[in-house]
Automatic annotation (TrEMBL):
Main location: cytoplasm
Molecular-function GO term, any one: histidine-tRNA ligase activity
InterPro entries: aa-tRNA-synth_II, aa-tRNA-synth_II/BPL/LPL, Anticodon-bd, Anticodon-bd_dom_sf, His-tRNA-ligase, HisRS-like_core, HisRS/HisZ, HisRS_anticodon
Catalyzed reaction equations: tRNA(His) + L-histidine + ATP = L-histidyl-tRNA(His) + AMP + diphosphate + H(+)
Homology family: Belongs to the class-II aminoacyl-tRNA synthetase family.
Keywords, ordered alphabetically: Aminoacyl-tRNA synthetase, ATP-binding, Cytoplasm, Ligase, Nucleotide-binding, Protein biosynthesis
Record domain Aminoacyl-transfer RNA synthetases class-II family profile: where: 1-328
Organism: Massilia norwichensis
Localization annotation: Cytoplasm
Record EC number: 6.1.1.21
UniProt-recorded name of the protein: Histidine--tRNA ligase
Gene: hisS
Subunit and partners: Homodimer.
Length: 448
């Protein structure tokens, strides 16, 4: 033997999603997509790599994300500065501006896919993570804000997640924030003796972040700090009241959290977070807000926008913690065969059964060979299929196939012999008609 080759492992903070988890991811994705569709949102797919400047401009050059967390590199062919997207809004809005999507009226858009941030990996926080996001562009009133929040609530309901709560705030406009910021800095300076080193470092760069401090010695002082809500003018307040009115009328529970600010520079007015206490420190599973100034920043005509993004890994972890749904079976039919002629017949029949809309796993040879009937039947059992279809030499001679129910009551597993040309109809009848089959036969997704 040659000397042992070193094995590769995945990059830290970037995870494989293995087949055992696929059904859960699929359930999650299908649920979210059908909810988005039910509100009239349309899919947009943008590239994973964008110009670095796009994110610096959108997210703000002095934010943690742009300063420390982006995977940025120089294109070795032409020297362009490129970045793996750390979030989805900037690319979606870039596409809206580039293709004039909003010129013929407002757009409801959604996307999904991987995002990349160079963070210290911890539970529920990864360097490659998946997000679903929605962006509603060209709508100005609080009604669309309410719609996006209610869309999220429907996702949690459909996934059976009942321990996610809504926190809401309004951060007004830039001028209202400026006035608040000046007073906040003055207030912190007056309480300088209570500020820890981190707070002193942030005082002038990003005083709002001090409000997020976990330091118990600072809590009392922070709680008494000037509140942004008290600085909102008439329009900002009316928008916030309008939103709360619609949520109240639709029985959406929420808490107004005056400390909720969101880390990105482009937000204004409504900001919201969906939070859970079940995942340890990383409690936010979905966050969003209004970003009316962003499109103009990107060189588009002034157009309002609002959106959210949800972290798929965290929500899937939440689904797991609430009892995992049973793994669906791999197929409907497992094809067992012995001998060369039988193999040819099995291929033909497997294709016909697939033509009829069922899922078939056809037994194929391994390095150990074709496998005995007994070992093939074991595989059929393990596949979760409702039926095994068996073709051996006798069946070939008599132009029949044997159909064996794998899900019958113990000991009653009966086997039927069916003419080769009638096998497809027989099997479809069995699966759909629920001959010997589990509770979910009738809702088979893909019958033509």
């Amino acid at each position: 033997m040659s000397d042992k080759k070193e094995k590769f492992t995945a990059i830290k903070g970037m995870n494989d999603i293995l087949p055992a988890d696929a059904p859960l991811w699929e359930l999650f994705e299908n649920t979210v997509e059908s909810v988005l569709k039910s509100y009239g949102y349309q899919k947009i797919v943008t590239p994973i790599v964008e110009e670095t400047g796009l994110f610096a401009r959108a997210i703000g050059a002095v934010t943690d994300i742009v300063e420390k967390e982006m995977y940025s590199f120089e294109d070795s062919m032409n020297g362009d500065q490129l970045t793996l997207r750390p979030e989805g809004t900037a690319g979606a809005v870039r596409a809206v501006v580039e293709h004039n999507l909003a010129y013929d009226g407002p757009k409801r858009l959604w996307y999904k896919g991987p995002m990349f941030r160079h963070e210290r990996p911890q539970r529920g926080r990864y360097r490659q993570f998946f997000q679903f996001g929605a962006e509603a562009i060209g709508f100005a009133g609080p009604d669309i804000d309410a719609e996006l929040i209610m869309l999220c609530r429907r996702v949690w309901d459909d996934l059976g997640l009942d321990n996610i709560r809504l926190e809401l705030n309004s951060i007004g406009n830039a001028e209202e924030r400026q006035r608040h910021r000046a007073d906040l800095i003055a207030y912190f300076e007056a309480n300088a003796s209570v500020l820890d080193a981190e707070a002193q470092r942030r005082l002038h760069a990003n005083p709002l972040r001090i409000l997020d401090t976990k330091n118990p010695a600072m809590q009392d002082m922070v709680n008494k700090a000037p509140k942004l809500l008290d600085y909102l003018g008439g329009e900002s307040l009316a928008h916030f009241e309008g939103l709360k009115k619609i949520l109240d009328a639709n029985n959406v529970q929420y808490t107004v959290n005056p400390r909720l600010v969101r880390g990105l520079d482009y937000y204004n007015r409504t900001v919201f977070e969906w939070v859970t206490d079940e995942l340890g420190a990383q409690g936010t599973v979905c966050a969003g807000g209004r970003y009316d100034p962003l499109i103009e920043t990107f060189g588009g005509k002034p157009t309002p926008g609002i959106g959210f993004a949800m972290g798929m890994e965290r929500l899937i972890e939440l689904m797991k913690s609430q009892g995992e749904p049973a793994a669906p079976s791999q197929c409907d039919v497992y094809m067992v065969h012995q001998g060369e002629e039988a193999q040819m017949k099995a291929f033909i029949l497997a294709e016909r059964i697939r033509d009829a809309g069922l899922d078939v796993v056809l037994h194929c040879a391994t390095p150990q060979g074709a496998g005995s009937f007994k070992s093939q039947m074991k595989k059929a059992d393990g596949s979760g299929a409702a039926f095994a279809v068996i073709i051996g030499e006798d069946e070939v001679k008599n132009e029949v196939v044997a159909v064996k129910s794998l899900r019958g009551a113990e000991g009653s597993a009966q086997q039927t012999s069916v003419a080769f040309d009638e096998a497809v109809d027989h099997i479809v009848d069995q699966v759909i008609g629920g001959g010997e089959c589990g509770p979910d036969c009738d809702e088979h997704h893909h019958h033509h």
